[in-house]
């Protein structure tokens, strides 16, 4: 009996051993043949819900504050949106005066947020590949007869919701600041409202690209046929040419758009003479023997800056004597920087794909675009030529460091870049120091490295490399010569052309003194005052506005980024330069792109460690492929991140058609206000031929560019000029006065408001008005000899 029981037990164990999992699974499948895909959709639905709530809460608070609403759209448009959503007007008084806000119902913003999130989720999921690691159908109500796997809609929904959930962090910080009375925190958070939304949307765009790129690359690798070894180089060359041609086409498209915008501003009389059209007058006066000057300058222009780069346009200008030529050349020069960024990525090892994306990010980088058209519509600055020239200099420097180019190419580019402005010595000095330090930290075969060498011995070896190697010697010479050139410019050359007066931009640092020597001394001896100007909200916002549009990629190459820190610090001590919408930051643009081109490569290990921690904690997606293509793919993903940030920040900050401002009809910078033909421009055509070209004309700023080709072209403003004896009057030889009565910032609207006509009516004749009050023209009554 016992033997029979034992045999039966063995038989049962033997027959049951391969079956248990199968029988259990079969029973589960039988009972749940039509189960919903709950787990993937529960996760993605939760994240989408958080994103909706965060966006709705932020929209309510942003629309309620005029300060924050103006970061997105014009105040008039923001008011219309608030009222359309059922908002009620609220008035209150704080220490700064009467304030206005709108109490927008949360339900209204929640509806808008839900529509945006659902549409973004559906469209984004639809555009992703259908084979994206999941079931055939990935819709939330799809049934499955097997283990549910997350499909394209669930994967994208989770990433989209996670990206928008960062808005809850902004909301939390803002609420904590308000409840605790932490004004600094509130100031930082409110000032970065638009930047927060831009970076959240950039995260979503980056995650979407990551999902699609992973799938497409997987298909490429599986479907790609074997390539003979001797054909690999030709395929790589072909792919490089394809990326280059695509970037070139986009560069030309960018140029076409901005040239059209610049020219439209010119035809609409929206370009000022001061700091813009005056440079065209320099070329005209040189060709006609009047010297390197405009009559806006206090003497020769070299008394303002050692800036002669725009004289290189003289051969072209002699053929086409027009300010439109200068605008076209500036735009083409700025756009060409994208092609140099592409080359920098090839040299850094980032690859052609990364070069394409980062070059495109350069074109979308709004601090670069503001060098083409500034916020005050100054459209031509010679400083703009410094960006491609400095990028070219850095490219040749990196090639020389690798032994792929002779040193004379780098030095030639460096010397040409110095003609842009004396400020570039503030870049080349730190660049020389960077060369010395980097070569000092590198290992060398010249000095044998002993395993037991002490720290002191290693420091000796580093110092030896700094002063004995070609790179170290070149860096030392560059550092010293940059300091000498800067001192020569501000202490000798510029004062020489100003009759001994100091540089005019010393007044930008009035807090530290009135002369260059006094300013430098106070900065060196009063570090408390310097730190007080550097460590504040304005400096932080300036840094964020430069770094965030590139996704903070320059931080991944800190040594290169440090080259621009001295100039950045000097700009932060400046009273007027802490804004990337003017021209002062021009050299920093090239430094930031240079650091980005190397940062997307040097940050590989750092990003890999972060990814390992995040994937261990959850399923956040950072686009890195840890396989044989890892080294070439990861820089591409980071470059796409930079492009996503450039696109989304440009949405709120750019003046181009890629920005909301361009389409906002209530904005002062919309296409309706700036680029559509106006009655004022048409009215000027009626007096364009009224004054002979041999006359000497004094005119206001925005009509002044039309008279730079006349015998004399004087500035009519409230600024005393040397040509007028530093008095508020027109020069004695002035034949005509032209007042732009309805132009920007015009303070004169009637002939009686013109001092010359009001005080000496017998000396000036008021010509008949044929412009319906747009322009006032006075003609001097010369006494007969």
UniProtKB/TrEMBL annotation:
InterPro entries: STSV1_Orf64 (IPR018650). Pfam families: DUF2079. Residues 15-29 have a biased composition (Polar residues). Residues 1-29 are annotated as: Disordered. The chain crosses the membrane at residues 105-128, 164-182, 247-266, 332-350, 356-373, 385-403, 423-441, 473-497, 535-556, 584-601. It comes from the Bacteria. Keywords: Membrane, Transmembrane, Transmembrane helix. This is Membrane protein-like protein. The lineage of its organism: Bacteria, Pseudomonadati, Planctomycetota, Planctomycetia, Planctomycetales.
């Amino acid at each position: 009996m016992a033997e029979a029981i034992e045999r039966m037990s063995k038989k049962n164990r033997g027959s049951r051993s391969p079956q248990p999992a199968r029988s259990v699974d079969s029973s589960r499948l039988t009972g749940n043949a039509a189960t919903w895909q709950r787990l993937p959709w529960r996760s993605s639905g939760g994240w989408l819900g958080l994103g909706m709530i965060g966006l709705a809460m932020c929209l309510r608070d942003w629309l309620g504050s005029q300060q924050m609403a103006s970061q997105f759209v014009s105040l008039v448009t923001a008011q219309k949106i608030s009222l359309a959503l059922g908002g009620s007007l609220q008035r209150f008084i704080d220490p700064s005066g009467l304030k206005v806000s709108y109490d927008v119902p949360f339900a209204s913003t929640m509806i808008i947020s839900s529509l945006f999130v659902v549409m973004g989720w559906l469209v984004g999921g639809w555009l992703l590949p259908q084979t994206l690691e999941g079931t055939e159908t990935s819709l939330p109500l799809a049934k499955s007869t097997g283990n549910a796997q997350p499909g394209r809609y669930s994967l994208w929904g989770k990433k989209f919701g996670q990206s928008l959930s960062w808005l809850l962090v902004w909301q939390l910080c803002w609420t904590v600041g308000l409840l605790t009375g932490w004004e600094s925190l509130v100031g930082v958070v409110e000032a970065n409202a638009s930047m927060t939304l831009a970076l959240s949307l950039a995260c979503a765009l980056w995650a979407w690209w990551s999902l699609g790129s992973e799938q497409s690359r997987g298909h490429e690798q599986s479907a790609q046929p074997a390539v003979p070894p001797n054909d690999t180089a030709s395929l790589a060359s072909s792919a490089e040419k394809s990326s280059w041609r695509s970037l070139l086409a986009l560069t030309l498209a960018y140029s076409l758009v901005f040239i059209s915008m610049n020219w439209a501003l010119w035809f609409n009389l929206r370009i000022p003479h001061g700091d813009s059209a005056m440079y065209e007058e320099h070329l005209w006066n040189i060709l006609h023997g009047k010297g390197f000057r405009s009559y806006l300058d206090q003497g020769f222009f070299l008394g303002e800056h050692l800036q002669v780069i725009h004289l290189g346009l003289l051969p072209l200008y002699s053929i086409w004597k027009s300010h439109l030529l200068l605008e076209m050349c500036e735009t083409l020069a700025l756009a060409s920087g994208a092609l140099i960024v592409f080359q920098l990525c090839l040299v850094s090892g980032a690859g052609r794909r990364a070069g394409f994306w980062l070059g495109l990010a350069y074109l979308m980088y709004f601090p670069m675009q503001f060098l083409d058209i500034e916020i005050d519509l100054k459209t031509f600055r010679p400083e703009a030529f410094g960006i491609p020239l400095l990028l070219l200099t850095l490219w040749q420097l990196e090639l020389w460091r690798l032994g792929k180019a002779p040193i004379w190419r780098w030095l030639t580019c460096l010397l040409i870049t110095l003609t842009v402005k004396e400020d570039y010595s503030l870049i080349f000095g730190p660049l020389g120091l960077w060369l010395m330090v980097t070569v000092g930290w590198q290992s060398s075969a010249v000095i044998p490295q002993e395993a037991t060498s002490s720290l002191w011995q290693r420091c000796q070896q580093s110092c030896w490399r700094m002063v004995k190697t070609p790179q170290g010697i070149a860096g030392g010479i560059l550092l010293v010569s940059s300091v000498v050139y800067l001192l020569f410019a501000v202490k000798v050359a510029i004062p020489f052309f100003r009759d001994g007066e100091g540089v005019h931009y010393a007044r930008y640092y009035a807090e530290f003194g009135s002369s260059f020597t006094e300013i430098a001394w106070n900065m060196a001896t009063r570090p408390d005052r310097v730190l007080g100007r550097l460590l504040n909200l304005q400096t932080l916002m300036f840094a964020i506005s430069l770094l965030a549009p590139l996704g903070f990629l320059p931080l991944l190459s800190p040594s290169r980024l440090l080259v621009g820190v001295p100039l950045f610090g000097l700009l932060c001590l400046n009273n007027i330069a802490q804004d990337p919408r003017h021209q002062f930051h021009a050299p920093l643009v090239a430094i930031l792109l240079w650091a980005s081109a190397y940062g997307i490569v040097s940050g590989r290990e750092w990003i890999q460690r972060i990814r390992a921690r995040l994937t261990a904690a959850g399923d956040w997606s950072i686009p890195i492929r840890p396989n044989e293509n890892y080294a070439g793919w990861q820089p591409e993903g980071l470059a796409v991140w930079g492009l996503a940030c450039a696109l989304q920040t440009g949405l709120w900050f750019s003046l181009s058609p890629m920005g909301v401002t361009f389409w906002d009809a209530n904005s002062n910078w919309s296409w309706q206000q700036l680029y559509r033909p106006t009655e004022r421009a048409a009215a000027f055509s009626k007096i364009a031929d009224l004054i002979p070209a041999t006359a000497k004309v004094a005119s206001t700023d925005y009509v002044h560019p039309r008279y730079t080709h006349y015998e004399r072209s004087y500035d009519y403003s409230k600024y005393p000029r040397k040509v007028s004896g530093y008095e508020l009057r027109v020069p004695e030889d002035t034949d005509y006065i032209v007042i732009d009565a309805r132009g920007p910032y015009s303070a004169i609207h009637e002939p009686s408001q013109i001092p010359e006509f009001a005080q000496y009516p017998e000396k000036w004749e008021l010509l008949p008005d044929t412009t319906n009050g747009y322009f006032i023209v006075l003609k001097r009554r010369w006494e007969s000899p």
